[in-house]
Amino acid sequence: MTSSASPRLSMLELAPIVAGGDAAQALRNSAALARHVEQLGYTRFWVAEHHNMAGVASSATAVLIGHIAAHTHSIRVGSGGIMLPNHAPLVVAEQFGTLATLFPGRIDLGLGRAPGTDPLTARALRRDRFAGDDFPQQVAELRGYLGPERPGQQVRAIPGTGTDVPVWLLGSSLYGAQLAAQLGLPFAFAAHFAPAQLHQALKQYRQLFQPSAFLSQPYAMACIPALAADSDDKAQRLATTPYQKFLNLIRGDRRPLPPPVDSMDGLWSPREAFAVRGEWLGAAVFGGPETVRTGLQKLLDETGVDEIMLSVDCYDFADRLRCCEIIAGLLPRLRAAKTEPA
């Protein structure tokens, strides 16, 4: 691949509820963070769908996307992602058709097929155990509602029809990569919590890619955990927040996002430490500016992704803002593969 000046940089948001805080504060912070990264030149601000998690306030994803788009001016706002088997495709088309009508040229629709929650909550969402088996058909139905009206079409999304909201496929395995390639859609890999198949998925996506009316060549994004601070030492202390977050998830404890601690010693077992650092956060880039620059360049060199999306877990909102500033400042020093924008 030929080289271009720098990759695109984007942000994934879960509207984290921190210990001692509440959902109202989390949602205010989401809008403030979006304004902040817009000013820093980030390309996208995506909101993730999760349910029944005490530390996540982004469950009503489309509603939050509208709130954030209304508080920003130019950054693309979208879903990372909408878990399509949780919803009727027509409803999603109406929601995102409405968003695209209100904020033309700024809305992305990232789609996934996981439940985004535990089995009991999935059942409360009216999702049965076979949900997701017909994901390709659901994607096709949804795209049909967002495309031009067809002769004889009896069910339309209003608003939605003719908006052609850009659709991305998201995944943490080979399945999403293969389907995105087959459909000629951009692909985002969820390495922020499941990095194991990142390289293989991207390889298959590029090898199997079929050009479409929407995309003439592959366009891939990797979402990774990132923490940048003014020193390695401070970043490693901040990293104890995501370490505790994933440790709690492993233990089935969905408490709000915890504050950092001086040391994880005594908080986790060696096996848990390996699982958190290696299996969940294996793609993480944590450190001072130069450490983060080296880590991001390594990611770009090894994967050739066109865009990096950051997942930033910080207890203190000021630390999140500073992290985004530091990484934006590193962007001119990063080299990316040159491919078609999405």
From TrEMBL:
<dbReference type="InterPro" id="IPR050766">
    <property type="entry name" value="Bact_Lucif_Oxidored"/>
</dbReference>
<feature type="domain" description="Luciferase-like">
    <location>
        <begin position="20"/>
        <end position="306"/>
    </location>
</feature>
<keyword id="KW-0560">Oxidoreductase</keyword>
<dbReference type="GO" id="GO:0016491">
    <property type="term" value="F:oxidoreductase activity"/>
</dbReference>
<dbReference type="Pfam" id="PF00296">
    <property type="entry name" value="Bac_luciferase"/>
</dbReference>
<dbReference type="InterPro" id="IPR019949">
    <property type="entry name" value="CmoO-like"/>
</dbReference>
<protein>
    <submittedName>
        <fullName>LLM class flavin-dependent oxidoreductase</fullName>
        <ecNumber>1.-.-.-</ecNumber>
    </submittedName>
</protein>
<comment type="similarity">
    <text>To bacterial alkanal monooxygenase alpha and beta chains.</text>
</comment>
<dbReference type="InterPro" id="IPR036661">
    <property type="entry name" value="Luciferase-like_sf"/>
</dbReference>
<dbReference type="InterPro" id="IPR011251">
    <property type="entry name" value="Luciferase-like_dom"/>
</dbReference>
